[in-house]
TrEMBL record:
Pfam families: Virul_fac_BrkB. It comes from Priestia iocasae. This is Membrane protein. Keywords: Cell membrane, Membrane, Transmembrane, Transmembrane helix. Its main location: membrane.
Length: 279
């Protein structure tokens, strides 16, 4: 039985590598990294401007990014956002939202093309429908990310309330604080499920996209933490690229993120085709 599983896993890996080469995943990942970079700072500006209307602080947002991003990337993000923190007004909020939606929808359009290529289907939806879907997905992701920011704040309030009311131990508070990893993983999984379900020009069921969403969730968190550890402890991009070192690190991180998202779509397409063949 073990030999059968090993052969199946080896066959799966070979097929996945072949699909990565066939569908030009590295090139698509580079395109996604470009769109991610364009949309990242308008999105962060929008969130920081929005924070003035929510029970949040700027460190809450930065802490969420700091858990996964390398130090050099965080220094660039913080230095750029510092210049706009004091400009929280309605005009900046609207400009940030428009820039975010347009840039992010371009990125989602690139993801749609990648997923359609994975399923070997053509994009025949009207331009307005395809762009509208991309914009709706962008708004949905903005909403989910805001919820992800609010949950730890309210979660901490709930934990302190339970601690004081029922006299729970300090261990409970430590476990409660660590639950943010579970919350982050769950939110990421929901985001990827929605992306893999709606983006391809293919009628799918939730079960058809769950495996790819799980792969993308675990893969993105693992790759981000591993890359962050590598950059922070073993690599010195500043010595090679000078003042551009932080930007290079940011681009590589976004490139890896884009690659994992697209590979998750390929994983879904592989299981979908295998299920059709077996049927």
């Amino acid at each position: 039985m073990d030999d059968v599983k090993k052969r199946s896993m080896l066959s799966f890996g070979k097929e996945l590598v072949a699909r990565i080469q066939r569908d030009e995943i590295p090139s698509l990942s580079a395109e996604l990294a470009y769109y991610f970079l364009l949309s990242m700072f308008p999105f962060l500006i929008f969130l920081i401007t929005l924070i003035g209307f929510l029970p949040l602080q700027v460190p809450d947002l930065l802490q969420m990014i700091d858990e996964f991003a390398p130090e050099q990337t965080m220094s660039i993000i913080e230095s750029n956002l510092t210049t706009v923190v004091g400009q929280q007004n309605g005009e900046l909020l609207s400009i940030g939202l428009i820039a975010t939606v347009w840039s992010a929808s371009n990125g989602i359009n690139a993801i749609v093309r990648a997923f359609n290529r994975a399923y070997q289907v053509e994009e025949n939806r009207p331009f307005i429908v395809a762009r509208g879907m991309a914009i709706l997905l962008t708004f949905a992701m903005i909403f989910i990310i805001i919820v992800a920011l609010l949950l730890p704040v309210f979660g901490q309030m709930i934990g302190v309330y339970l601690f004081s009311t029922f006299g729970l131990s300090d261990t409970f508070l430590a476990i409660w604080a660590a639950s943010r990893w579970i919350i982050s993983s769950l939110i990421l999984f929901i985001v990827f499920m929605a992306l893999y379900y709606f983006a391809p020009n293919k009628r799918l069921l939730a079960r058809n996209v769950a495996k790819g969403a799980a792969f993308a969730t675990i893969g993105w968190m693992g790759a981000s933490l591993a890359f962050s550890y590598y950059v922070n402890n073993f690599s010195n991009y500043t010595a090679t690229y000078g003042s551009l070192g932080g930007i290079i690190v940011l681009l590589i991180w976004l490139y890896l993120s884009g690659m994992i998202i697209v590979i998750g779509g390929e994983v879904n397409a592989m299981f979908y085709e295998r299920r059709k063949r077996e049927a």
